[in-house]
Write a structure and sequence with these properties.
Elements: H1 10-20, H2 27-33, H3 37-40, E1 42-45, E2 48-51, H4 59-71, H5 74-82, H6 107-125, E3 131-135, H7 142-151, E4 157-161, H8 166-173, E5 181-186, H9 193-205, E6 209-214, H10 217-223, E7 227-230, H11 247-274, H12 281-295, E8 300-306, H13 313-325, E9 343-346, H14 357-362, E10 369-373, H15 378-393, E11 412-417, H16 422-442, H17 454-464
Parallel strand pairs: 3-4, 3-5, 5-6, 6-7, 8-9, 8-10, 10-11
Antiparallel strand pairs: 1-2, 2-11
Bound molecules: 6-O-phosphono-beta-D-fructofuranose.
Length: 468
């Protein structure tokens, strides 16, 4: 597999030179001088329109970025990802999350999904359990929590506890009774300190009904779980919402909703696998991110869903992007000499506008933004579009004092969906997964391990044992 450093690629040098010619270009002038811009820089993905006309780039930029991806062996890496090859070299594992939603999914995946559907249908159709509490953290929490928060229909009261701070579990159990509460202990390893502590605390509270979702069946048996749903080492935690790790999500949205969610991800997978690079939405998202980070110097990236239902999306994407691509060592295990993942942050619009948009418009840092418009309400869409325009075009009002000037030229992209559905949420999350993968390829890093979190865990254990 190609492990050439991106900075050794011809296109990298060309992009660096090309970036110089963009330093003094303003988005205002680009739009004024090119009426076709707002239709030229648009790509259609499954169920969505991706408008990147407000990015500071041109056709040549995109050509060079596509060359960079090709020089980095993008096609070969994509094939390896989709075929379930062991591309996570430091753990000698595949990263085959696409198999979880494939039409021809492996038998073990289909069997697990069927089992989940039976269990969830029972739970949703009976009166025995009123509360489902998911105990997990990271990928065993953020995905199902996001889906449940976005689309939960209220048939079951589904709660989440992730923090080892006992207040988190206390909150999840407010008003609950042990007899009518089902705990789902979701942990791929079944060794995560916070999750195991919460599972034990749930037992002490009087919890009697426990399901486990894990790849560590032995540990789950020892714990005494009534039902064990498998996870596999070829699915990374932050890519696992499509698996049994999404059990609490299925409880919240129902088996049919979960099927739609998987179907949406499958739509994006098919698009990612087949669309040419210049029309491939997740690839474009990745390339534009590389352009902003490595050539225009952006250090952070904001995600702004104009939807209360998607208020947890930034938190979900923080793990997906930063645990995957927050790396300083390349695939040859040498230190990189270029930036990798920017800091990802964000919040739901319009709430964000009254918090940190001041910095977006007039701060000293340029923060590329993803605006996500789900066509929910006119006021939301109007605000979403207004923010993107204000950032891009600013004001030309020299008579106003400096503090009332908006410099503009601040890049953003728009993702438009027609509505908020399980299918569209699946499509959206999978877009970001493939964006992350593509950026990992360009940066020549392994997006699928997370060694950076280990040291802190070990030290905390030592401190607890009094060894430090
Ligand atoms: O510590 C990081 C991490 O390993 C994440 O990658 C993972 O999603 C999370 O912890 C939870 O892990 P587990 O599902 O094994 O409890």
């Amino acid at each position: 597999m190609n492990t050439l450093s991106p900075t050794q690629c011809k296109a990298w040098g060309q992009l660096a030179v090309h970036a110089e010619s963009w330093r003094s270009v303003h988005l205002r002038d680009l739009f004024a001088n090119d009426v076709a811009r707002s239709v030229q820089f648009i790509a259609e993905g499954p169920g969505l329109r991706y408008d990147y006309s407000r990015q500071r780039l041109g056709a040549m930029t995109l050509r060079l970025l596509a060359h960079l991806a090709q020089e980095r062996g993008f096609y070969e890496w994509r094939e390896a990802l989709l075929a379930g090859k062991r591309i996570n070299d430091t753990e000698d594992r595949a990263a085959w999350h696409t198999a979880l939603r494939a039409a021809d999914a492996p038998a073990e995946v289909r069997e697990t999904l069927s089992r989940m559907k039976v269990l969830v249908s029972e739970l949703r159709n009976q009166k025995r359990f009123r509360r489902v509490v998911n105990l997990g953290t990271g990928g065993s929490d953020l995905g199902p929590r996001l889906v449940a928060d976005a689309l939960g229909d209220g048939r079951l009261d589904v709660r989440f506890a992730a923090n080892v701070d006992r207040r988190d579990l206390e909150r999840a159990l407010e008003g609950a009774q042990p007899d009518s509460t089902l705990f789902v202990v979701a942990s791929k390893t079944f060794t995560t300190q916070e999750t195991m502590a919460n599972a034990e605390a749930a037992k002490r509270w009087g919890g009697k009904h426990f399901f486990a979702v894990t790849s560590n069946v032995e540990a789950a048996k020892k714990f005494g779980a009534d039902e064990i749903l498998p996870m596999w080492d070829w699915v990374g935690g932050r890519f696992s919402v499509w698996s049994a790790a999404g059990f609490a999500a299925m409880c919240a949205i129902g088996p049919d909703g979960f099927e739609d969610f998987l179907g949406g991800a499958r739509d994006t997978d098919e698009h990612f696998a087949a669309a040419p690079l210049e029309k491939n939405v997740p690839v474009l998202m990745a390339l534009i991110g590389v352009w902003n980070t490595n050539f225009l110097g952006a250090a952070t990236h904001a995600v702004l869903p104009y939807s209360n239902a998607l208020r947890l999306l930034p938190a979900y994407l923080q793990q997906l992007e930063m645990e995957s691509n927050g790396k300083r060592v390349d695939r040859e295990h040498g230190a990189v000499d270029y930036a990798t993942a920017p800091v990802l942050w964000g919040a739901e619009g319009t709430v964000s506008q009254h918090s940190f948009h001041q910095l977006l418009h007039q701060g000293t840092q340029t923060v590329p933004c993803d605006f996500i418009d789900l066509n929910l309400e006119k006021t939301l869409s109007a605000n979403c579009c207004a923010q993107a325009d204000a950032l891009a075009f600013g004001t030309e009002a020299p008579a106003l004092p400096a503090y009332r000037q908006y410099p503009g030229n601040r890049p953003s992209s728009m993702l438009f969906f027609e509505e908020l559905t399980a299918r569209n949420l699946g499509r959206l999350i999978a877009l970001y997964e493939h964006k992350v993968f593509t950026q990992g390829v360009i940066w020549n890093i392994n997006s699928f391990d997370q060694w950076g979190v280990e040291l802190g865990k070990e030290l905390a254990k030592k401190i607890l044992k009094g060894e430090r």
